[in-house]
Amino acid sequence: MSSWLSEVAGSHRLQLGVTAVASGCLAVTVVLGLQNARRWYDAYDLKDSIPGLHEPHSVKKINEFGGAVSEAGEDTSEAERSAALARRARLGDYDEDLILEQLARNRVFLTDDGLAKLRKAFVIIVGCGGVGSHATAALARSGCGKLRLIDFDQVTLSSLNRHAVAALADVGTPKVLTLQRRLEQIIPWTHFDCRNELFSEKYAKEQLDPWTDGQKPDYVIDAIDNIESKVALLHYCHSNSIPVISSMGAGCKSDPTRIFTGDISASAEDPLSRSTRRKLRMRGVKSGIPVVFSSEKTGPGKAQLLPLPEDEFEKGEVGELGVLPDFRVRILPVLGTMPAVFGLCVANHVMLEISGYPHDYLPSKARDKMYDGILAQLQGLEERVAKHHGLDPLGLRIPVTADDVGYLIEEVYHGRSVISGLASRLALTRWRKPVGNWINTRTPGQKADTLELVDLVCMTKDEMLKHEQMVLKEGKAPEEMYDKHVIELVERRMREERTYRTQR
């Protein structure tokens, strides 16, 4: 045994093998050690580069709006490259095949002719917040050739839950420039005309003027949330035959299945829409403007328009809390998805209209026949009351039209009976028994009822028949018939109608 070990130990090959194995193990150990050491030093350097809470550091500061402040000398090569590419693309230095490939899905949907119309279109978007930014982004991505953006406001931190393209670094930046800068990176061939200004009726002609080549706007999108500016824009477009579509209120809404596109006369369950309709009616516009609106009703547990805290009122002038005079200063609860849906519906309508694609929206309300029926009922009611009081009803005419009926039912009484709150089988009736000479016969051969809109209230047909018998014929006062809540509601609605009537 010892002789065998001696022979093995004296073997030259064996010695070389052992030496090789030992060298390999040593090399592996050294390599692993160096790798561990390198990882340790890298981790140490990374941790050491993180400043303490109270140590000075070179991390970008946050400005008063919450956005990142650009450091002097910061590398802006990417932004400059995107802007340069957009300039070249707008001058025609961009491959047409690439453009058509990017728009391929729209092309097969709208056809070549429809897409060509969209690429030549000039659309103006007024209001570039949640709704307007999504409408702009959708139109740009779909190939719309010329976009004019009008908005006076800047991106804020609270904008980021609903704005289509704004990032934290954009806070404090004009919304119109934020949209242009981001969208140029996606569709560089689109032409933008950004106007960082408030839409004003005084300057509407200049703000909605043709493009530099003389092309008139093919469509205007109203995404304003201030009623006065919204009404001014819609009235100007309607009066000057400029196609326009308006977005009604997306605030306090949460059900996307209740969003409709239809005529403004059909919009309901939306305070912004109601106020807009009323003010447009005062200017002689009752219909003919397409709008996107939600029919969702408010209810227990749902978001409401929040009032200002009492301590804000105690500070003094509440108006000073608004961005501009007469702008809303209350907090508007907005679910971030809803303005996007509104904006996309608006853009969808514009694209279909411009490209000539056939579309027929499901009507949310078809109440013209109902208004005609209520008007006929009111005519019959006045004739019966006249006959009951010994007057000749033959040839009696009432100074109320079907439009007036729609105004009272929808705008003043919100489509509900003042007695029960029911919304079916509605009718209009005098609130109090007519007194004195309420039929004008001064014109020979004509009998004119002196009935005024402020005299009328909305009830169900059954409630109207009972009211006719007890109040209009037997002479009871409404205070004897109804509780305090109903009386106060009627008085409030009549005050509102008087206010709007004086402004018509």
Using the coordinates shown, work out and report the CATH topology of the largest domain: Rossmann fold
Beta strands, count: 12
SS strand fraction: 5-15%
Secondary structure tally, helices: 17
Estimated helix fraction: 40-55%
Q: State the assembly state of the protein chains.
A: single chain
What is the terminal-to-terminal distance?
124 Å
Any idea of the CATH class of the largest domain? Answer: Alpha Beta
Strand order of the largest sheet: 3-2-1-4-5-7-6
Task: Decide which structural class fits the backbone.
Answer: alpha/beta
Question: Average pLDDT value?
Answer: 81
Give the SSE layout.
Elements: H1 2-9, H2 12-49, H3 77-90, H4 96-102, H5 104-119, E1 122-126, H6 130-141, E2 146-150, H7 175-183, E3 191-195, H8 204-207, E4 219-222, H9 227-239, E5 244-247, E6 259-263, H10 271-282, E7 290-294, H11 310-314, H12 337-355, H13 368-388, E8 396-397, H14 402-412, E9 426-430, E10 439-440, E11 447-449, E12 456-460, H15 461-473, H16 478-481, H17 484-503
Parallel strand pairs: 1-2, 1-4, 2-3, 4-5, 5-7, 8-11
Antiparallel strand pairs: 6-7, 9-12, 10-11
Helix pairs in contact: 5-12, 6-12, 9-10, 13-14
Summarize the structure.
The protein is α/β, with parallel strands linked by helices and 504 residues long. The protein folds into two domains: 77-355, 3-Layer(aba) Sandwich (Rossmann fold); 368-503, no CATH class.
